Amino acid sequence: MLSRIVKFARGEKYEDLDGEVRRPSEPSDLTSTGRSPSGHLDFDSFSEATNETDGTPAAESDDTFTVDQAVDNIGFGRFQVKLSLLTGLAWMADAMEMMILSILSPALHCAWNLESWQQALITTIVFCGMMVSSGIWGTICDKYGRKAELILCSIVTFYFGLLSAFSPTFIWMLLLRGMVGFGIGGAPQSVTLYSEFLPSRSRAKCVVLVEVFWAIGTCFEVLLALLVMPTLGWRWLLGFSALPLFVFTVCCLWLPESARYDVARGHPEKALATLQRVAKDNGKSMPLGTLVHAGLSDPNQQVKRGRVSDLFIPELRRTTIMLWIIWFASAFSYYGIVLMTTEMLQAGEDSTCSVSQEDGNHLACRAACRDLSTKDYTDLLWTTLAEFPGLVVTFVIIDLIGRKKTMALEFVLFSLFVFLIAICSSRTVLIVLIFIARAFISGAFQAVYVYTPEVYPTNMRAVGLGTCSGMARIGAIITPFVSQVLLRLSVHLTIAIYGTVCLVAGIAAFLLPIETKGRVMKDTHKDQQRAPPSGH
Length: 536
Fold this sequence. Notes:
The protein is 65% helix and 3% strand. It is built from 21 helices and five strands. A hairpin with a 4-residue loop joins β2 (13-16) and β3. α3 (78-112) packs antiparallel against α4 (116-144) and α16 (387-397) crosses α18 (427-455). The longest helix has 35 residues, at 78-112. The protein starts with 6 loop residues before the first strand and ends in a 6-residue tail after the last helix.
């Protein structure tokens, strides 16, 4: 059912309900050649994705169509499967570079006799690089395209990741890992590109499923450490962990540019060529007519690129503020539980709270260097496997109860099980509680990745995701000093901080003004205004 009537005829013109009068779009030479089996454009195949959720007519006129309509008409097929694998490879490579932080710190503590704050700094410097670069990558993405940005950031990450294996001193390690973080800061844009090629009906589940590769990357890194660390050491582990990024960079030569980006930049002919390539790969037909921008009467008109200030226009101000809180809490808690797990396992005691230096005996024990044992790596692998059930839960409920409720529920459940860690029970109970807590924070983080590209219009989607990533990096910069430094002073205070932060994030998720479930991705903020309001 149409949520609003957009236009009605008045003589030879059309008039919007807001009073603006326009003439119908003139035909263009840029026309697709694909037809449906009946020889006519089958509007039914994408009418639900446009009419019911966007509130706009199925086409600007009988001989025009938008990127949304084309993508929904083409559907999910072979092209999206290949793009899923390529995007997944990027996530797997970046996950390995992030997971190695929880393994590298204990190793360097023994190799270079580092203090606890120096261990935390190795992790923090990576996130500093990510925070500094996230906005830069967003700007590059909006100016030069998604494909160019992904190739460049992958080259940077691979090069400095490989060089860090040869670090002679602690300072060199900080500099090189900081540059690795600078490169990883552009990784979230792969989700932007991926989501823009997905039909609206399958977008959420596809984005969640591709996040399985992040879980695969984290598990693979632990297995790699289990094999490499006892024999070859941390330098070889750093070198091996950088190789998947090289493979991804080579595979990026196949990667197409976003059709939405090309249309928004005033190049509909490039967008049409990309869509025809996707349709051919999927064995589907293209809609008939001229490719137009959903918010413009002139298909060759260029949309103004988004700026950070545009994120605070009245239609997006509340959404941006809530998302910044959510992204901060997601990264703070996710990386916090990962680092805290290693610290608790390295304590090598039966009690959950033995990592704390409140007891003098434990303080003396902690002063001695202790590498992670095979049992520690095995338990670390068990907690890392928690990301898979977390993704499954998110996959099942995200289209049932919506994005907002999914995020809110999983944040609250994470807080509940983190608070239970304060019971200070046996190591087995500790592993179970961390497993459940990590499952929920992983699921919540993936739901955030689904929601954010959907809620921002195309012309400011990259900068919106970039600034949100920047807020996440602030949380990740702070969390090592909580999970690695404060934890040794007070386990209970550390647990209280993580639990409280995610409770606040759950409230922020519930207060988001827009639910994007079943909603077509918008091209401009004017489309945002036209969208029907969403209930909580």
